[in-house]
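**User:**
If convenient, please work through this fold.
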Amino acid sequence: MKKINVCRCEPEQSEWRSNTCTCARCKCLLAKVDVTSRYRPRNSVLILLITLLLASCTSATATSVEPAPTSTAVIAGESPVQVSVESEATPRPTIPPFRFDLPTPGAEPVSGWRPPLYPVPWAVSAYDHFYFARPIAADNVNWPLAEYRYGAVFFAPNIVHTGIDIDAAEGTPILAAGPGTVVSANWGLFTGTEGNENDPYGKAVVIKHDFGYKGETLYTTYAHMSEIIAVVGQHVETGDVIGLVGDTGVTTGPHLHFEVRMGSNTFFRTYNPELWLSPPQGWGVLVGKLTGEKGETLYEFPVEVRPLPSERPIHKVFTYARGAANGDPYYQENMVLSDLPAGIYKILINYLDKDVQFFVEIFPGQVTYFTFTDKNGFQSVTPPAPPLDFLPVTATPTVTPKP
C-alpha cells in the first residue's frame, strides 16, 4: 500500500512521498498516515484512556447515588416478598397522633354515691326520732322507692301501703335496723295465721326493740323475704343479718318492705319510716301537712319538689291516702320526702286549678316542716307545742331491759 504524508492544515494541497513534510503555514512535523484507514495510533490511545477514566467516574457516581437495599422482614412460615424501590424520594412517615389507651369502664354503681348516715340515734330537736339504721347495706340501694312510699295505694282502693319499699336484688342480706328481740319469723304476719303461705307479707320477721318512744314500744317489720335467718326469741344487734331479700307474698318483684310500728305489733299502728331512718350526713327531710277549704286533709294530693337552681331532678310525691296511714304524733303530717341534700327547694301544687309555689330550705340532719291551707296558702311554721305528757324524757331512745 502506498503511504503518503498529509498535512493536517492543507491535506489537499500538501501531499509528499517522503516520510516527513513541513507545512508551509504551520511548519509542523507530520506523522505517517495510512490514507485508506486514517489510523492515528497516538490519538486513539489518548482517547481510550480518557474514555476509561470518564467511565470509571460515572460508575463511582452512580454507585454513590444508588440507595442501599431495604431489608425485608420475614415472617415464620411465609416466603419473603421483594419490594421494588421507587426511584422517587421516599416520603416521610406520618407520625400517629398521641392517644391514651384507657381501660373499658365498668358498669355504673348500683346505688351511686351518697354520704354516710348520721349515727343512730339521731335527734336534732326534741321531737325528732331518727332511731334506726338502714335495713339494707350502703353498697346497695337503701332508700325508699319513689313510687312505693308510705300511705300510697297500689293494688286496691282500700289497701294502703303501710311501709316503704327498698329495691334490692334477690338474696341481698337484710339487716336489723336496731337492737331488739325477734318476736315473729314466719309466714302469716298479716292474717295472723302462722305458716299461711297465702299471706300478702310472705316470709316476714318482726323485731321488738330494746327502746321505745314516748313510753311506747317500737317494732320494725321486714317482709317478702326469700329466706328467714333469724329465729323467734333471738336477740339481735344493729346490722345483724336476719334474712334475705325475696318476692314472697304479694309483690311485683324482689324488694324489702319495711315498717315501723309503735304501741302494738299491728297493721293499723304503723308510722312513716322516713321519719325514723337516719338520713345521710348533710341531707334532710321535708315534712308537710296539706288541708283544703274546710280544713279537711287532702288525700292522695300530688306535690312536686324541685331543687334550685337546676330544678332537676323533679321529686313527685303524693299525700297519704285515706285509711291505715297515720301521721306522726307531733307533726301530724300527710306527706314526707326524705333524703334531700341541704339547699333551697321549690314546692309546686295545683290547687283549685291554680298553680301555687313555695320555697323552703332543707337543713342538714333536720326536718323542714311546712303547711298548706286554703286560707293562708303555704307557710313554714313549726307545729304547735305538744302537751307536757307528750314530751320524751330525752332526745335519745329509752332503753328497755333485754329479755
Notes: The chain has one helix and 20 strands. The first strand starts at residue 5 and ends at 6.
